[in-house]
Automatic annotation (TrEMBL):
Record Pfam families: DUF554 (PF04474)
Name of the molecule in the record: DUF554 domain-containing protein
Residue stretches spanning the membrane: 6-24, 36-56, 68-87, 120-139, 159-192, 199-218, 230-247
Domain of life where this protein originates: Bacteria
Organism name: Jiangella asiatica
InterPro entries named among the record's database cross-references: DUF554
Keywords per UniProt: Membrane, Transmembrane, Transmembrane helix
């Protein structure tokens, strides 16, 4: 498939889910929604395991040494997590979303406009601010497959059904935000994939796999890990590979 296919798929599921939500309304019982969420959480764990297995990549080990691959991923998570928590990445993302919603959902021209704006802003933030958005788009751009975005597309499709049933057409309009944000991140992935060697890509993939474990734990309602605060680890991982490779040379 071509780079960006995952984003196209995501846009289609958001539009389709919104259409279903507008038609059927509140007909999915809570128990059914919980079962679907649990199933998606388990699939996320499976994808996380396959991504984390990149720590065993032969090119990665050849670049930094067999014993350093796990340490690099560990160091990336620790350093990235500390930086992210000090910068309050997750809280800032949530704050930006809340601020946008307050601004755009203020006094308007009527109830219909308010509901449209609320639906658009709420679901745009839900679909565009999260680890899977970043990890999946970068992976798709780097040629690592669109599995993560396919999972996200499935989750977003089900979420769109529920939100469109209560908030209306604005939810369908959020597909535009998904296309813009994930498309831009995919382009970044294409550029990064052409510049970074296999060892760097493997380090990012393995680190991202562990972040996906955090996403899965959230979906399974086991522990609400602040995955947003760990996102800087994706930048730290290739830097550590460069440092270790330079020391070994």
């Amino acid at each position: 498939m071509f780079p960006g296919f995952g984003t196209v798929l995501n846009v289609v599921t958001v539009i389709a889910g919104s259409g279903v939500g507008l038609l059927v309304g509140h007909r999915l019982p809570p128990r059914t929604r919980d079962v679907v969420t649990d199933a998606l959480g388990l699939v996320t764990l499976l994808i996380a395991a396959t991504s984390a297995a990149a720590v065993l990549d032969a090119g990665f080990a050849a670049e930094v040494g067999d014993s350093a691959t796990v340490l690099i991923v560990l160091g990336a998570l620790l350093i990235g997590g500390i930086a992210g928590s000090l910068l309050r990445v997750e809280a800032r993302l949530e704050g930006v979303g809340s601020g946008l919603q307050r601004r755009l959902s203020g006094d308007g021209d009527g109830e219909a406009r308010r509901r449209f704006v609320e639906g658009f802003v709420t679901t745009s933030l839900l679909f565009c601010v999260g680890p899977l958005t970043i990890l999946g788009s970068l992976s798709d751009g780097m040629g690592l497959g669109y599995d993560q975005l396919a999972l996200k597309a499935t989750m977003d499709g089900f979420a769109a059904v529920a939100f469109a049933a209560s908030l209306g057409w604005g939810v369908m309009a959020s597909a535009i935000a998904v296309a813009v944000v994930q498309g831009a991140l995919t382009v970044v992935g294409v550029i990064a994939g052409s510049l970074l060697g296999d060892a760097y890509v493997a380090a990012i993939t393995a680190t991202g796999g562990l972040l996906l474990v955090g996403v899965a734990l959230r979906l399974l309602r086991m522990k609400p890990l602040p995955v947003g605060d760990l996102l800087p680890a994706l930048v730290v991982a290739p830097i550590l590979v460069s440092i270790v490779a330079a020391i070994r040379s």
